[in-house]
Amino acid sequence: KLAATKNLNQLGEKWKSKTLQPTILSNRNKNDRGIYILSQFPYPSGTLHMGHVRVYVISDSLSRFYRQNGYNVIHPMGWDAFGLPAENAAIDRGIDPADWTRTNIFKMKAQMGNMLASFDWQRELATCDPEYYKFTQMIFLELFKHGMAYRKEAEINWDPVDKTVLANEQVDSNGRSWRSGAVVQKKQLSQWFLGITQFAHELNRDLKMLTKWPTKVKSMQRHWIGESHGTQISFAIDKTEHEHIDVFTTRCETIFSAQYLALAINHPLVKKYATSDPSLHDFINENKDLPKDSKRGHLLASVLAENPLTGLKIPVYAATYVLGEYGESAVMGVPAHDERDYEFWNQNCPGKPIVPCLEPTNGCPDSATLPYTARDTLMGSIAGVYKGLSSQEARQKISENLQALYVGGPKVQYRLRDWLISRQRYWGAPIPIIHCDDCGIVPVPERDLPVVLPTVKGLKSKGNPLSQIPEFVNVNCPSCGKPAKRETDTMDTFMDSSWYYFRYLDPKNRQFPFGFEAASKHLPVDLYIGGVEHAILHMLYSRFIAKFLGSIGMWEGSSNNFEPFKQLVTQGMVQGKTYIDPDNGGFLKPSDLEFLSNSELKQEKVVIKASGKEPRISFEKMSKSKHNGVDPNKIIGKYGPDAVRAHILFLAPISESLNWDESKIVGVERWLHKLLNLSSIVAAKDVHKVDLKTPPNLNDAEIKFHNEIQKLLKSITDSFSNSLSLNTVVSDYMKFTNALDEAVKTNVVRDSIALQNMQKLIKVIYPVVPSISEEAREILNQGQNWNWDSNSWPHNEPLIESNTMDFQIVVNGKARFIYSTRKDFLDAGTEKVIAELLTLPNGAKYLAKKDIRKIIMKKRVISFILADG
Ligand code: ANZ
Ligand code: ZN
Questions:
Q1: Where is the Leucyl-tRNA synthetase editing domain (predicted)?
Q2: Which residues of the chain are under the pLDDT cut of 70?
């Protein structure tokens, strides 16, 4: 299929040849070290929440680290700006969704600034800008040209609250809308779909290549795609010779025990027979909304289906447990070997015999109680020429033979459905299509893009206002020129976000969504950070669109599987401290509580004002009803961005959920104070010139200090570049600070070494606490003109072997004390060793005036055997 779409790739060629030089990236050459770090762009709701703060702190810290290491970092930010909240807010307040969105973007951008997020603002985009959605429309037209966007009458999910259609992916397992929470209704409507199923195979296959994705996300996607290898079998319906019913089965070897066929209620044949069979008609109406685990059936009175292998004729039912949207919407019923079929049979044909065709490999057939679903079995005598084969062997042979007989054959099925992108809402990218009575569906010519969303004054009700704007709807057909009507559906906003990471790479391109060179050079995204809630929807749609754009030659990755995201990190949730009344389990507001600070315990004590009791504390998802939300603005205002950044990283590994506990931030504050204080102490030292290289001739204390710092530096570097354990980074910062503080206070290292390591410390903390790092640097530089490169990442130096060694002194088998001295201590010989040990207080205590029978000196252990007494 990919090969087929490649032939249609003129557009890709066009794109390649006409690509404008990307404006921003033109100063980069192929060899420079580049890295693309991306955090999911937010919906501009107006305020950042703590979850946003967490993601952006992660991506920002990593970006700063890579910049310090000489990488050309792409770290963009933009706005997923179409969608229902803007529209609903506009309806509620009588304002223009565009204005509402703009204001929110402005506010949130300021908040991102407050948290010191260093985004490439020159790449900024908003999906609601005509300059952006022009290209969302262009991509839609590409899909259309390649037969991948089509309109179809289908049974769809209708959200009665938001008054719009939803994609399957947007309905949860309880049949509720992911957005409004309303129970979704089924409706028959003509809608636009994207042919994601044409990429089902690749989407499933390439999950294997994503070695740097969380296993959980991959298995969620695999399950969603639901690739199933089985067999299609055609059962002829007697009477009408040319008609047949196709079924999909993963157990074709059970065909000898097929006792009926079952059709989904919306199977075309069921609909057909319902027109002449009133009782079937009633059955459909009564049961169409039943849950899929119910086993009701209705016999199609006039039909019998012929088993293509045995020639047996079996009855056909309409059945509630057969899914209309899977496989062939029909199953062959095998009561002997399938749980659901067994249940159906007992309910609809009680007492009728059940015919098995599989039996246990070893042991007596009687041990197989029905339904017998094991697969390690042999075919019984009923299986004709297949008798004696294992279930698996038989499956393969039968599948091949059915194919040879033109009555079926191997088939791969997917659970994935095509992506329904029509939305009957205003605030989205208009689908660039015109309906003409004569020409049918006509794409809007590229030169007429974008199809601009008209401004509506006073958006009133939910539902689609576009259809009520004659100036928008009435156009001339681009093909024949006669009056025609514009499509009034807008696109699912997941379409906008399925390609934004391409646009960032070439955001000013006016002709194309992005240039071939820019995309091919910088994709895949090296590190994508986002919420696990997008593990299926956004991730699958993005992979699909990236693969489609790749298949038509619009970009080329380093490996040609067109995967857009090399590494995926799903950050855990930020949970709020929740106070619960032990008496009634209710959630308490801050105003219900009294916070007593207990300076002795260095802890806060909380009591409930009304009862004087202590509340129960737990950490839960932040929500208004639990009064446990935290406003990033307030927190940053109170503690400053650096403390908040360090704290949020320190509290938990990035992919685990984080219990936000404000009272613990004091630890981080204490560290930052110590660090600034330390910079002034070091700054006051009288060092004129300092070389960042470690001086030779270190004394023992200096060697010990050097080694400790080198180990920490290595750990910090590793955490940023490999393990992403950013919580460890912060604790290493603290260890580094303490070690330096200790060394300075006790004066065990010379001043130039203290200064040199202060500089290293200031550099390595920069990714997480950039403004404190700068402040410390200023303090250190005051009145001095050391010329040090404060931006680069410090190199790791080798560990230095120490001149001293610890010797363990053992007396009569008991370890007594440790003597730390020069390495060649033992070379002097037994007498001198004993003499020197006796000069030590411990030596005198254990050895003086004792009768030493024997002394054994081994590496680091000096062992004495004394005479009794
Ligand atoms: C006969 C059979 C005998 C089956 C047996 C199973 C066990 P997956 O793995 O999900 O692909 N099936 C097929 N289409 C269906 C539909 N539209 N609605 C409900 N069930 C359907 O499962 C494939 C199996 O699910 C198929 O194999 C079919 O039942 C059922 F001992 O066919 B089997
Ligand atoms: Zn026309």
A1: 222-402
A2: 1-33, 238-241, 290, 362-368, 461-463, 560, 598-603, 688-693, 783, 785-787, 869
**How many angstroms is it from 579 CA to the middle of ligand 1?**
49
User: What spacing in Å lies between the alpha carbon of 469 and ligand 2's midpoint?
Assistant: 21
pLDDT at res. 238: 66
Q: What's the pLDDT score for residue 6?
A: 33
Write the residue with the smallest CA distance to atom 10 of ligand 1.
228
- Centre of ligand 1 to C-alpha 331, Å, is 6
Nearest protein Cα to ligand 1, atom 2: 251
What dihedral do alpha carbons 816, 817, 822, 824 form, nearest 10°? Answer: 10
DSSP string, 204-255: HHGGGG-TBS-HHHHHHHHHHH--EEEEEEEEEESSSTT-EEEEEES-GGGG
Token representation of residue 605: 């004590």
Ligand 2 centre to CA of 445 (Å) is 13
Atom of ligand 1 nearest to the CA of 373: 31
Task: Name the 3-class secondary structure at 90.
Answer: helix
Q: Which ligand sits nearest to residue 229's alpha carbon?
A: 1
Nearest residue to 492 via CA among 44, 80, 45, 38: 80
Quick one: pLDDT at residue 801?
A: 86
Residue nearest atom 9 of ligand 1, based on CA coordinates: 228
**DSSP class of 182:** P
Is the shortest distance between the CB of 329 and ligand 1 below 6 Å? yes
The pLDDT value given to residue 710? 96
**Torsions phi, psi of 399, nearest 5?**
-60, -45
Q: Are 803 and 705 in contact (CB under 8 A)?
A: no
- The b-or-e profile of 668-700 (16+ CB within 10 A means b, else e) is beebbeebeebbeebbeeebeebebebeeebee
pTM for the model stands at 0.85
Q: What is the pLDDT of residue 114?
A: 93
Report the pLDDT value the prediction gives residue 241, as an integer from 0 to 100.
60
Give distance in angstroms: CA of 440 to centre of ligand 2.
7
* CA nearest ligand 1 atom 22, residue: 250
Token pair for 568: 């995926």
Among 267, 269, 320, 331, name the best residue to mutate to test ligand 1's pocket (greatest count of ligand atoms within 8 A of Cβ). Answer: 331
Domains of the chain: 2-26+35-127+501-571 (3.40.50.620), 144-205+214-222+418-491 (no CATH), 228-413 (3.90.740.10), 574-662 (no CATH), 664-781 (1.10.730.10), 804-866 (3.10.20.590)
